[in-house]
Design a protein that fits this description.
Elements (H helix, E strand, L loop, with lengths): L4 H12 L5 E4 L15 E4 L5 H7 L6 E4 L4 H14 L4 E5 L3 H9 L3 E3 L1 H14 L1
Parallel strand pairs: 1-2, 3-4, 4-5
Length: 127
C-alpha cells in the first residue's frame, strides 16, 4: 500500500525478482512512478478498506507492506491485513518512534524511518 518513492521502488525491485505483486494507492497518478517494466497489478483505492484489500488479493497474500505518508493509514491497513485476512508478514512504516514500538509490541513488523535515519546520522558523525 502506497506508491510513493519507497513503495514504487520496492515494487519495482520485488517484481524484477519474480514476486507477484499488487500495488494499492488512492491516487492513480502515483502508479506512474512504477518502472515501465513493472508487470504486477495496480488497484486504485484506500487499503484501510477491507473491500479494497480483498480486490487487491490480500486474502491470498504472504506479505502486506504499508508505506504511505500517514502513520494512521499504515497502522489501520496493516491491522486489517494481519487480523482480518491473517497475512503472516505485515510490514508497516511508522514515522513516530513511540507509536512504532507500541505497534511492534502488538505484533506488527514495524520500522521507523525517523529512528533509522537518526541512527545513520549519528553513526556518520561518530564514524
Amino acid at each position: 500500500m502506497g506508491c510513493g518513492r519507497v513503495g514504487s521502488r520496492l515494487a519495482t525491485i520485488m517484481d524484477a525478482e519474480g514476486h507477484r505483486l499488487t500495488v494499492v494507492d488512492v491516487n492513480p497518478a502515483a502508479f506512474s512512478r512504477l518502472s515501465s517494466s513493472y508487470g504486477g497489478e495496480t488497484v486504485v483505492g484506500d487499503a484501510t478498506d477491507e473491500d479494497v484489500q480483498r480486490e487487491a488479493g490480500v486474502v491470498d497474500a504472504d506479505v502486506f507492506v504499508a508505506v504511505t505518508q500517514g502513520d494512521n493509514r499504515n497502522i489501520m491497513a496493516s491491522q486489517v491485513a494481519k487480523h482480518l485476512f491473517q497475512v503472516d508478514k505485515v510490514v508497516c512504516r511508522i514515522y513516530d518512534p513511540i507509536r512504532q514500538e507500541v505497534f511492534r509490541d502488538l505484533g506488527l513488523r514495524t520500522f521507523s524511518p525517523t529512528t533509522v535515519l537518526t541512527q545513520m546520522i549519528h553513526d556518520t558523525i561518530e564514524g
